Automatic annotation (TrEMBL):
The keyword Nucleotide-binding does not apply. GO terms for molecular function: glutathione dehydrogenase (ascorbate) activity; glutathione transferase activity. Residues 119-252 form the GST C-terminal domain. The keyword Transit peptide does not apply. InterPro entries: Glutathione-S-Trfase_C-like (IPR010987), Glutathione-S-Trfase_C_sf (IPR036282), Glutathione_S-Trfase (IPR040079), Glutathione_S-Trfase_N (IPR004045), GST_omega (IPR005442), GST_Omega/HSP26 (IPR050983), Thioredoxin-like_sf (IPR036249). This is Glutathione S-transferase. SUPFAM superfamilies: GST C-terminal domain-like, Thioredoxin-like. CDD domains: GST_N_family. Gene3D superfamilies: 1.20.1050.10, Glutaredoxin. GO terms for cellular component: cytoplasm. Keywords: Oxidoreductase, Transferase. Residues 34-112 form the GST N-terminal domain. Pfam families: GST_C_2, GST_N_2.
Amino acid sequence: MPPTTSHPDADLHPTASGLAQATVEAHSAAAPHAGVTLYSGWFCPFVQRVWIALEEKRIPYQYVEVNPYDKPPSLLSLNPRGLVPTLEYDGKPLYESNVLLQFLEDAFPDHGPRLLPEDPYDRARSRIWADFVTSRVIPSFHRFLQDTEGGEALEGKRREFLGFLKEFAAELHHEGPFWGGEELGFVDVVLGPWGIRLWVFDHFKGGLGIPGEGEGGEDEEVWGRFRKWLRAIEERKSVKETTSEQEFYLPIYQRYADDKAQSELAKATRAGRGVP
Ligand SMILES: N[C@@H](CCC(=O)N[C@@H](CS)C(=O)NCC(=O)O)C(=O)O
């Protein structure tokens, strides 16, 4: 059958599956008054940041699935960048996942838990580490995933990525389980969607190499703390209920692993730039 669209990445599974499918169905009705509409791609980790926050805060929202590689006019008219997540609030558009997280915090102060700390210093620190995730961890995740040279080049990218994860892990609250302590917060939501996607390195790149229990040597404590964080993220209801079945992510990540993906993120990685 000839492709129905010209973008090479557009041919993906059309809808969420598994636990995420039930969440989509529960939010298929038009957004209630003072609610928001989330223009989403079920597979997208940037979307998942915002989706987790909407679920955690129990903000009324409508979920609208769009294919950002076959951009419908409804998406482009709201977001000239044509990226998901895009949000419509009171008829007005907003985008950029980290901005959206902070917007939800400001616009719905009485809904659910606050993700950012009250204390100005702690808020600023959360923003520093959220920025670290977006400017360092995610580009490095993609450099590693999109490597097709193998050998020393792949090994170097693996080491770079592990180095960033270790730097992140060293900043985690001593007990946790989350970044700032017992409660899930902004930094957790910003990295969480990539945390639950670390399986891609086992699947496509011969392993990530986070030391297992008792294997961390002088870094045992920091890696132990990272594993505890990751377990807490993986077990979080809002994370599970916004995650689809692995088999449907596979063909998408296969294209990244073969360095064939033509998304803005894949192209930016190839060109040595950061997150689009
Ligand atoms: N900086 C954006 C990145 C969003 C993004 O790259 N979304 C991807 C899907 S995961 C997208 O819409 N890609 C469409 C494209 O590459 O044309 C954010 O944080 O919201």
